[in-house]
Design a protein that fits this description.
three-stranded antiparallel sheet, single chain, 128 residues, alpha+beta
Length: 128
């Protein structure tokens, strides 16, 4: 996904880090690779969604990207902000869907028989 689709916003509460409150966020859509990496890191099933957010948050205020970790989010993210990240993730999905529906190359015929039926032509060749 070289052209990453993202959404930006501001956490309702924010995260205290290095003596400063950080609220501005930019989030990209998670991939299966993100989820696999989280599991390979040994994160428990209950923590997977938070760990995936740690991987997909491109910015969180002025916090260096390498410091946006699962541990940071577990220790500082409040439930209201977590709910906001879920809504922001849903917005990224909607954005991706709107981009793909606007693309002329994504139209595919439905699986109805009219769209998939082949027209038989009569041939003089003997049947095999």
């Amino acid at each position: 996904m070289s052209d990453k689709i993202t959404c930006t916003g501001a956490l309702p509460v924010g995260i205290m880090y290095d003596g400063k409150l950080h609220q501005r966020v930019e989030l990209r859509l998670a991939t299966v690779g993100d989820e696999i990496a989280v599991l390979e890191d040994g994160v428990s099933d209950a923590g997977v969604p938070v760990a995936v957010f740690a991987r997909t948050l491109l910015t969180l205020g002025d916090i260096p990207a390498d410091n946006i970790t699962y541990e940071l989010l577990c220790d500082t993210l409040v439930s209201e902000d977590y709910g906001y990240l879920i809504k922001l993730r849903d917005e990224v999905k909607k954005k991706l869907k709107s981009v793909s529906s606007a693309s002329p190359n994504t139209d595919t015929p439905s699986s109805g028989s009219d769209a998939t039926a082949l027209t038989k032509t009569k041939s003089d060749a003997p049947a095999l």
